[in-house]
Each structure stands twice: as structure tokens, then as C-alpha cells.
Task: inverse folding
């Protein structure tokens, strides 16, 4: 067979192999687009970080359908609690999805008291349950065994209006047993109660974004026109969570806010880091028909990472402690892994769980190789183990060469290792201008220090040569002037004679 025929056979076989090769797992096993944003705010394809593996309904676990479920919590022991609002109960499951208990109410003064549309839940390290019993207007605190410990009911305070009605929606608790509550109709911030259930004030009031065009229009409007205008009222918080250090994470649903996620310190100040390419707002580019993200839940994952749930687009956005968007998964739809009305996001070890009120089920996601590698690298960096993070970041780049955060991570490791010249290359690839400037200054100082002796020697030689030239030049000028004067004097004397 001629060389030309062999070439055609090989080319045909190659094409057949390419077409026969299976698609990547990200395309075959996820019913949603997997992407991230680069420095230029362009959506670029990315490997899927999480893929759906399981969907669980109330019927699947033998307790009948969930009805309007509104919250979900995984305790430190791995127990899963679902707030089955429409059925007025809390469903307790183990990590194998076996029902452990159905909590329909509690005993008080010899009577059974049921829940009425509960909508929020928190479980502390002692497995005590803090239940936002919404339509009953109270927070119910139960022990691990279901015994009533106390209730937090209609608070009284000079800062509360006389007609105030306590309607708790979401709840979280810090290690000092301070209780934080998102309540309906409260715009002043998150309500805070002490360990005895006494109201002690608000934290984290949302700032109002004023439209100064509207302000000017108000000045020119009549009373009737002003009455029809929207008031400058702060947005309500939608959900809360708390990290191991006692910082409260909160989300609000204001589509115009550039700070829909907050991290509140004990003084109520927002200390969330926003050093990424763009704001921590969920999706930064969206279809006009869909609109901006509506963040309705936040979950602290540990190691500085946290996930927020976008009810508008049905997506989960995960960030690191510096505000970098790590990955996105989910979407709206009917397939497993997409949602109708997602209301809560949780994590169970490496897995992530999303509660979907629209489908009345829980979807379980597991990390891919890409997702696990990103999580591991972020963890190592957060704990100061940047050198160990480098090979993990390199694995991330092997899976996705467009992942800017990996370049930045390697650059920071090299910077910590005082390899400033190498760090410059990675910061440039990751488009981290601030870190590039730091590395450049250090590299310039390093080069100057290394070559200072040579530089000083060259400088001395140049200075000496310049002085010698000036001296020789000066002597030459003096000699020339002396000869000129002598000639003039001689000529003058000759004329005289």
C-alpha cells in the first residue's frame, strides 16, 4: 500500500476514534451548563464542580410527600433535618436517609402543642433544635429528645413599635447562645436575643441605595404624587447562617444591592471580603427575561468557603473567603439536578444538598474531580499551607487551564516562598494586578540587592572616569590657554622691537 493510502487510512481511523470517544462526564451527567467568569466578566465554559447523584422525596423515605418544605439543616453529627412546613413537622433523617423521628410538636403544661407553618430551623452542637414556628409567632427550643427547653415569644422593647407582631422566619444561634432571627416585616436588621430569650437589639441593618433622580423628583412633586412613590425602605434579610468564629452570614433579596451577602461581626459591621474580580452578587450577567440573582439562602462550608442559593435562576454560587467565585452549578428545569423553587442549600461532608419546594424533594450533589481539587486547594491556602496547595492547583489547571484562581493560588505560594520572579508570571496569567504589583516591587528590590555591589562598582568606575575626564579636559584647556597667551605675548613683543 502506498504512503498516500496509509495516510488516508490513519486519518479516517483518527476521525472515527474522535467521534466514537465518549463525551466528558461534565457534559454527559449534568443537565445544566457549567461555566465561570473570567477577569473580563465573560462567561467561559468550565468542568462541572458538582453533579447530581440522587433525588429524595418524602414518599421515597416512607413518610408521605413533603408539603411546602421551607428549610433544611445538617447538624454537626451528620443528622439531616427538614422543615416540612405544610405538614407542620420537622423530619429527622440519618446520613443514610433513614427516618429517625417525626417532630410534630412538644409537650407544655401537660398539653401537646403543634407547630403552625414552621419555616426555619437551627441545630446547635448539643443537637438542641431552634424552630421558627412562624404562624404561632415564636421560636421554640427543644432538646435532642424533643423536650421543651424554652420559647421566645412576642418581645417587648422601646425600639419596637406598639403594633409590632413577632413573625419569625429564619433563625441561627452562636456559641454564646445568642439567638439571631430574621422576622417578617422587619427592615431594621436581624433581631438579636440573649441566651434567656430577651430582645437586645438589631444587627446588620441593610443600607438603602438612594436614586438621586427620584430624590429630586420628590422635591418637585405634589403630596398626592409623593404618596404614590416607593419609599426608601431597607430590604428585609432572607436567610442567615453562622460560622465557627461566630460571624453571622446573611442574604437579602434586593436585586439592586451590590452587597446582597454580608458577614457580620459581633458589632454588626459587615466584614465580608470582596477582593474578587466582581461583586459577590451571584450571577453577574443574565438574560433580561430572567433578571438578576435573588439570593435566598447562604451556607457556610468551612475553610472560608460559603455557598449562596439563587432562587431566580436555581443556581448555587460558591465563594472563597476573599470573594472569588469558585464554581456554579444547578439551574431551572425538570431534570434531576435542576429545580423549580429551590429554598435551601446545605452540605453533608463533601456532598451538597438542595431543598426544592417546587418539586418537594432534596437533590444530592457530589463533587467531581475538579470540584474536589478546588475545595482541597482552597482549604490548604486558607490554612496557610500554600506550598502543599501548589500541586493541587496544578491538577486544577490540568482539568481547566482557564481557571484564573489556580494561577493566582500558585502565584501566592511562590510569593510566600520568596520566588518573586516566578510569581510574576502566574499573577499575570491570573490577571491579579494587585498581587502582581506586590511581586514586582519585591522582585525589583531583590534584583537591586543582588546586583548592588556590581551596580556600585560600575557607578564608582563611571564617576572616576568622569572625574578623570574633567581633570584631563581642564588641564588641556589650561595648557591651550597658556600657549595661546604665550604666543600672543611673543607676537606683541616682536612688534614692539
Result:
Amino acid at each position: 500500500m502506498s504512503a498516500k493510502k496509509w495516510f488516508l487510512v490513519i486519518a479516517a481511523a483518527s476521525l472515527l476514534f474522535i467521534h466514537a470517544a465518549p463525551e466528558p462526564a461534565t457534559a454527559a451527567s449534568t443537565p445544566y451548563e457549567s461555566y465561570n467568569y473570567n477577569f473580563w466578566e465573560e462567561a467561559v465554559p468550565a468542568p462541572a464542580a458538582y453533579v447530581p447523584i440522587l433525588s429524595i422525596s418524602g414518599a421515597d423515605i416512607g413518610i408521605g410527600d413533603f408539603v411546602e418544605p421551607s428549610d433544611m439543616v445538617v447538624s454537626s453529627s451528620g443528622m439531616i433535618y427538614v422543615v416540612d412546613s405544610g405538614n407542620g413537622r420537622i423530619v429527622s433523617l440519618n446520613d443514610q436517609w433513614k427516618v429517625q423521628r417525626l417532630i410534630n410538636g412538644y409537650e407544655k403544661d401537660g398539653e401537646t402543642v403543634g407547630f403552625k407553618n414552621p419555616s426555619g430551623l437551627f441545630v446547635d452542637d448539643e443537637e438542641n433544635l431552634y424552630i421558627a414556628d412562624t404562624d404561632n409567632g415564636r421560636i421554640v427550643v427543644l432538646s435532642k429528645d424533643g423536650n421543651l427547653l424554652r420559647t421566645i415569644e412576642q418581645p417587648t422593647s422601646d425600639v419596637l413599635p406598639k403594633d409590632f407582631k413577632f413573625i419569625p422566619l429564619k433563625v441561627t444561634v452562636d456559641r454564646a447562645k445568642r439567638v439571631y432571627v430574621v422576622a417578617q416585616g422587619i427592615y431594621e436588621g436581624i433581631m438579636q436575643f440573649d441566651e434567656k430569650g430577651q430582645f437586645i437589639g438589631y444587627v446588620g441593618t441593610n443600607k438603602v441605595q438612594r436614586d438621586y433622580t427620584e430624590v429630586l423628583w420628590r422635591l418637585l412633586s405634589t403630596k398626592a404624587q409623593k404618596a404614590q412613590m416607593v419609599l426608601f425602605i431597607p430590604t428585609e434579610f432572607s436567610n442567615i447562617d453562622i460560622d465557627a468564629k461566630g460571624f453571622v452570614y446573611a442574604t437579602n433579596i434586593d436585586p439592586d444591592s451590590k452587597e446582597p451577602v454580608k458577614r457580620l461581626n459581633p458589632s454588626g459591621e459587615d466584614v465580608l471580603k470582596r477582593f474578587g474580580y466582581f461583586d459577590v452578587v451571584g450571577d453577574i450577567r443574565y438574560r433580561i427575561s430572567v433578571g438578576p440573582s435573588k439570593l435566598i439562602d447562604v451556607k457556610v462550608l468551612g475553610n472560608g468557603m460559603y455557598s449562596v442559593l439563587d432562587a431566580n435562576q436555581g443556581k448555587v454560587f460558591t465563594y472563597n473567603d476573599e470573594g472569588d467565585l469558585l464554581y456554579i452549578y444547578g439551574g431551572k428545569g425538570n431534570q434531576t439536578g435542576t429545580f423549580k423553587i429551590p429554598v435551601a442549600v446545605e452540605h453533608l461532608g463533601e456532598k451538597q444538598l438542595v431543598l426544592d419546594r417546587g418539586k418537594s424533594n432534596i437533590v444530592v450533589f457530589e463533587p467531581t474531580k475538579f470540584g474536589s481539587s478546588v475545595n482541597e486547594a482552597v482549604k490548604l491556602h486558607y490554612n496557610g499551607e500554600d506550598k502543599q496547595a501548589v500541586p493541587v492547583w496544578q491538577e486544577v489547571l490540568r482539568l481547566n487551564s482557564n481557571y484564573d484562581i489556580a494561577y493566582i493560588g500558585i502565584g501566592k505560594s511562590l510569593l510566600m516562598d520568596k520566588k518573586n520572579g516566578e510569581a510574576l508570571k502566574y499573577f499575570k496569567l491570573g490577571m491579579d494586578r494587585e498581587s502582581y504589583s506586590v511581586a514586582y516591587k519585591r522582585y525589583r528590590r531583590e534584583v537591586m540587592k543582588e546586583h548592588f555591589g556590581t551596580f556600585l562598582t560600575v557607578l564608582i568606575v563611571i564617576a572616576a572616569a568622569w572625574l578623570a575626564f574633567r581633570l584631563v579636559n581642564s588641564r588641556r584647556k589650561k595648557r591651550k590657554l597658556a600657549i595661546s597667551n604665550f604666543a600672543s605675548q611673543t607676537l606683541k613683543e616682536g612688534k614692539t622691537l
User: Anything to note?
Assistant: Residues 1-28, 226-233 have pLDDT under 50 and may be disordered. The two ends are 115 Å apart (CA to CA). The CA atoms of residues 169 and 301 lie 22 Å apart.
